[in-house]
Amino acid sequence: MYKLIFTDVDGTLIDNENRISERTRNAFIACQEKGIKVVIATGRPDFMVFDHLRTLKLNKYGGAISNFNGTKVTLCDTGEIISENTIDIDTTREFLKFMEEYHFSISIMKDEYIYSTVDRQNELKMFFSERPAYEKILNNENKELFVFPKIKYHIEDTLSDKIDFEPYSIQFGGETDELLKVFPEIHKKFSDRIHLTFTSDNSVEAMPVGVTKGTSMKKLADHYGIKLSEIVAFGDSQNDFEMIRDAGTGVAMGNGQTVVKEVADYITLKNVEDGVAVFLEENVLNN
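Below the sequence we write its predicted structure tokens.
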């Protein structure tokens, strides 16, 4: 019997308009009513999934969110951060300076701030809640868990001389072929400090070495006292690879990348066909 569900967001939990379907919502709530914990695992920062965690009622049932591809893990019933990993400031500045030579777009997100070398306001607005800034998410005891922030943008020509904190991750984007060309050089200089993963065909996330969604899954399994064999994980992209591989049951989306499908135990329907809900209905709720 499954005791923990790990789900990616983009291309998995939501449709292509950033929405959770009613069928998917109902399936997750039914699973939680059976006592199964749910974790949202995403490359997004926490404020980009506040609406989704509330839609799935994770603040009521005691789920968790794993943000920045596993570098920050937060419990949704208490707001407690149980795991944090950041890129040290010297590596951050060195990496940013190196990447600025290639003229990729670069972004770093922290709290309510977005630092970027390009103006991404129109690109990102679909990911932000339309709810008023500073609206609160409460737990069952009406205690404040999270607050919808008022996003503040910092658009800069370069970031290497602007960032004065240790980020959870650094995102850079460009054409796939161009991104792949620079990977060997990044590996040569930073392989002992930085781990790279594609979050989409045109976007790469740089994270502290040794940290993935899969490592955050293992931390939460330990926290809840759950075996990996009791976990089902859903995903579609390279950044889901480790959690799909290591979960007791790894489920790739029909729209998923080949690298994920190759290590999955099952391939379900596409995200726009409620693939996650279909699997849960057939293999969890009907058992």
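The two ends are 9 Å apart (CA to CA).
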